[in-house]
Write a structure and sequence with these properties.
five-stranded mixed beta sheet; 35% strand; globular; 10 strands; mainly beta
Amino acid sequence: MAEETPIILSIHTEQPQSSSENSILPVRMTLSDLRALPVASFETTTIWTMEPQVFSGVWLATLLAHHGITTGTLELVAINDYRVEIPVNDVYPGGALLAYERNGEEMLLRDKGPLWLVFDWDDNPAYRNEIHYSRSIWQLDRIIVKR
């Protein structure tokens, strides 16, 4: 029997979609599904690591656009049930990166993986604040779209 590919991210709405809304939610994504989207990467320092880190993944804006999510608030939930909220209109290309690799390696659960929402703190000083630090959720496994 073939081994099942693990789901590392689920995206769904808080309430069921009305029949007039054209939505493909809910979705369950594997690492391969995320890798099939355009890859982005950058190097930055973080307040949680000793040295600069190279993060690779998919822009959160790209993920939302791929699934037709254009309005509402995102509730991002970690494996340990830590939660943060981000208004969809605060998500834009080149902003938050949903990283699945750090320094060329897949991130394990014990290394803040498998998914870590990060910002390029070195390139954009506007991210160096409590709002963006608190939004940098690691061990992310669910996104709930609140409409």
